[in-house]
Design goal:
The complex is a heterodimer.
Chain A: H1 2-36, H2 66-97, H3 101-113, H4 116-130, H5 136-159, H6 164-172, H7 177-188, H8 190-206, H9 209-214, H10 223-230, H11 238-258, H12 260-267
Chain B: H1 2-45, H2 64-70, H3 73-104, H4 110-122, H5 125-135, H6 142-148, H7 161-189, H8 193-201, H9 206-233, H10 238-242, H11 255-265, H12 270-295, H13 297-300, H14 303-306
The chains are: A mainly alpha, B mainly alpha.
C-alpha cells in the first residue's frame, strides 16, 4: 500500500514538472500568438493581458509586408528544389559508390556546421564585385550551402534503406546506371526528396544573418530581415510585429513537427534514426 | 581467361566511378565556389587593411590584424560572453533536455508532451527576439509582472550587464533544449525493453536503472548532441541582434556578433573582421573534427560494408 502511494505521488510530481517546463518553454511563442490578436489599446497595459480581451485581426493587415513575403517565398522555394536535386545526386554517389570515403563525408559535415558570419564577411566583398548584393540569386546561392549539406544526410540515410538488390536486379536486366537511378532509385526515394524540399524551405525561411548582410532593401530582403528592421526605434507597433512574427514562425513549426524523423537524421548526420 | 574477366570488371568499376563523380559534382562545385573560395579570399583580406568605407585601403599589413585582437578589449569582452553561452547555457540545455525525456517516458500523454516541447526549437531565433522584447519590457513586461508577486521591484532587464546576459542565455536555453531532448530521447527509445524489464525484476531503483541501463546507451547520443550544440552555440546572433544589440557595453556581444559589428554595422573594417572570422573558423573546425570522430562515419554511412 505504502509503495503504491509513493508511486502515485511520484507520478503527480512528474506531471507537475512536465507542466512547469512546458509552460516556461512555450511562453515566448504564446506571447507572440496572443499579441498578434491584441488591438492597440492592449499592447502596453499594466498588468499585462494574458489573452486578448478584445481579439482582432487588424494586425494582420501589415503595411508593406508583401514584398518581403514574396522574397522569402521565392528564395526559400528555389533553395528547396535546387538543394533537393543536388543532395539526392550526391547522396546517391555516396550511398551506392562510397565515393570520397570518410574524408569527403567529413568535408560535407563541416559545410553544414559553418558559422554563417565567416561566410558573410568575404562574400559581401565578393558580391559587391560581381553585383550579386541585394539579389534573389545571391541569397539562393549562399543558402544552398546549409541546405545541401543538410539534405545530403537525410538522403543518405534514406537511400541506405532502399535495398541494394533492386539496383542489382535492374542492372542484370540491362538498365544503365543512369536508368537505374531514374527508374528505380528516384521513385523509391520520393518521400525523402519531399522531406528535403520542405526542410530546406523552412531552414532558408528562418535564416537571418546572411540575408541581413547581403541585402539592403525590399528588392531582396526576406521576412526575418523585415522583422529585424521593425523592432528598432521607439514606438514599436507590437501588434503588427507579432502578427508578422506569427506568419514567420508558423511554417517552420508545422513542417518541423510533421517531418521530425527526417529532421533528426539531417541534424545528426544520420547517426540518430529517430 | 581470368585476365579478360578482370578487365571487364575493371571497366565496369571505372564506368561506375565516372558516374559517381558526375553525381557528386554539383555539390562539390557549390561548396568550392560558395565556401572554399570565399575562405581563401578571407585569409588574404585578413592580412590587409581593407576597409570598404575608405578608399585606397587594401594594402598588405602582415599579421597586424591578428595582433590587434589581443589588444582589443571589445574582442576580449566578446570572448567572455561567448564562453558564458558555452559554459552556462549549454550545460543547462543538456540537463533539462535529458531530464525531460526521462520525465515523460511512459507517462500518459507522452506523444503530446513531446510534440509541444519541440515547438520552440522550430521557431526562428529572430521571432524569439520580438517575444523577449515584450516579455522583458521594463514597464509592461510579463517578467516584471510575475516578479512583482514576490515583491521584486521592476528590473530594467536590458539596462544591466547581468540581467541582459540572463535574457540572452534564457532565450538560448528555451530555443535549444528541445534539440538536446530530440536526440537524447531517440537514444532513450533505443534502449532495449528486455534490459529494462530485467533490471526491474532484479529490483533496481529508478536511479540505478538510469545509471546502469539507460546511460550506457545514451552516452553516444549525449556526445553527439553536446558537440553539435557547442558548435552551434558559437553562432548565436539573431537573438542578440533583436534584443540587446550586444549591450549594455559589450556584456552580451558574442564573437559572431562582434565580427558583424566590426565588418558590417559600424565601420566596414573587412581586414580586421576577416582576422576575427578566421579565429572563429579555426575554433569551429576543431570542434567539427571532434564531431566527425564521435559520429563514427564509417559505420553510419555503411562505408565498411563494401570496404
Amino acid at each position: 500500500m505504502n509503495r503504491k502511494t509513493t508511486r502515485i505521488v511520484l507520478k503527480v510530481i512528474r506531471y507537475a514538472a512536465v507542466t512547469l517546463i512546458l509552460s516556461v518553454f512555450l511562453f515566448p511563442a504564446y506571447w507572440i500568438i496572443i499579441t498578434a490578436f491584441k488591438p492597440m489599446s492592449e499592447w502596453n497595459t499594466w498588468p499585462p493581458h494574458f489573452w486578448p480581451y478584445h481579439p482582432t485581426l487588424v494586425n494582420f493587415a501589415v503595411k508593406g509586408i508583401l514584398p518581403f513575403l514574396r522574397n522569402s517565398l521565392v528564395v526559400s522555394s528555389s533553395v528547396a528544389f535546387i538543394s533537393a536535386a543536388i543532395s539526392l545526386m550526391a547522396a546517391y554517389a555516396i550511398s551506392r559508390y562510397k565515393i570520397g570515403g570518410t574524408a569527403l563525408a567529413g568535408w560535407f559535415i563541416s559545410m553544414r556546421m559553418l558559422p554563417p558570419i565567416t561566410i558573410a564577411i568575404p562574400l559581401y566583398v565578393i558580391y559587391v564585385k560581381v553585383h550579386l548584393l541585394n539579389t534573389w540569386l545571391g541569397l539562393i546561392l549562399v543558402y544552398l550551402i546549409p541546405a545541401v549539406a543538410f539534405g545530403i544526410w537525410v538522403m543518405i540515410s534514406f537511400l541506405n534503406e532502399v535495398p541494394r538488390e533492386l539496383d542489382e536486379a535492374a542492372y542484370v536486366d540491362g538498365a544503365t546506371r543512369i536508368q537505374t537511378f531514374r527508374y528505380v532509385i528516384f521513385p523509391l526515394s520520393i518521400s525523402g526528396v519531399a522531406a528535403v524540399i520542405v526542410l530546406s524551405f523552412v531552414q532558408t525561411w528562418s535564416a537571418f544573418l546572411l540575408a541581413t548582410v547581403l541585402t539592403s532593401d525590399s528588392a531582396a530582403q526576406t521576412l526575418p530581415v523585415y522583422l529585424g528592421r521593425f523592432v528598432t526605434g521607439y514606438n514599436i507597433e507590437w501588434g503588427p510585429l507579432a502578427a508578422a512574427g506569427l506568419i514567420t514562425m508558423l511554417p517552420p513549426i508545422a513542417i518541423g513537427l510533421i517531418f521530425q524523423r527526417y529532421l533528426i537524421r539531417g541534424l545528426t548526420f544520420g547517426a540518430v534514426k529517430g | 581467361m581470368v585476365p579478360e574477366k578482370e578487365l571487364k570488371e575493371n571497366l565496369i568499376r571505372m564506368h561506375d566511378r565516372r558516374i559517381a563523380l558526375l553525381f557528386i559534382l554539383p555539390a562539390v562545385v557549390l561548396f568550392l565556389v560558395m565556401a572554399i573560395y570565399p575562405f581563401i579570399y578571407m585569409i588574404y583580406t585578413s592580412f590587409t587593411n581593407l576597409n570598404l568605407s575608405m578608399s585606397g585601403t587594401g594594402q598588405f599589413i602582415g599579421l597586424s590584424n591578428y595582433f590587434e585582437i589581443f589588444h582589443d578589449p571589445l574582442a576580449m569582452g566578446s570572448i567572455t560572453f561567448s564562453t558564458m553561452v558555452l559554459l552556462i547555457a549549454v550545460p543547462i540545455e543538456m540537463a533539462i533536455g535529458v531530464l525531460f525525456g526521462l520525465l515523460i517516458r511512459g507517462l500518459k500523454g507522452e506523444r503530446i508532451f513531446r510534440l509541444l516541447f519541440l515547438i520552440s526549437m522550430m521557431i526562428p531565433g529572430i521571432v524569439f527576439g520580438i517575444s523577449a522584447q515584450m516579455i522583458f519590457n521594463y514597464l509592461f513586461g510579463a517578467a516584471n509582472y510575475f516578479l512583482s508577486f514576490f515583491g521584486v521591484p521592476e528590473i530594467a532587464w536590458f539596462g544591466h550587464a547581468a540581467t541582459a546576459q540572463f535574457v540572452i542565455l534564457f532565450l538560448d536555453i528555451i530555443q535549444w533544449t528541445p534539440f538536446i531532448f530530440l536526440i537524447t530521447y531517440a537514444g532513450l527509445l533505443s534502449v532495449p525493453q528486455d534490459l529494462i524489464d530485467a533490471a526491474r525484476v532484479d529490483g533496481a531503483s529508478r536511479w540505478q536503472l538510469f545509471i546502469n541501463v539507460e546511460l550506457p546507451t545514451l552516452k553516444s547520443f549525449i556526445y553527439i548532441a553536446l558537440i553539435i550544440r557547442l558548435i552551434d552555440a558559437l553562432k548565436i546572433f539573431g537573438k542578440i541582434y533583436m534584443t540587446t544589440w550586444g549591450g549594455p557595453g559589450m556584456a552580451t556581444s558574442s564573437w559572431s556578433f562582434y565580427i558583424y559589428k566590426v565588418g558590417v554595422s559600424y565601420g566596414w573594417d573587412i581586414g580586421y573582421a576577416s582576422a576575427l572570422a578566421i579565429i572563429l573558423l579555426i575554433v569551429s573546425a576543431i570542434l567539427v573534427n571532434l564531431l566527425i570522430k564521435v559520429l563514427n562515419l564509417g559505420e553510419t554511412l555503411e562505408l565498411k560494408r563494401e570496404g
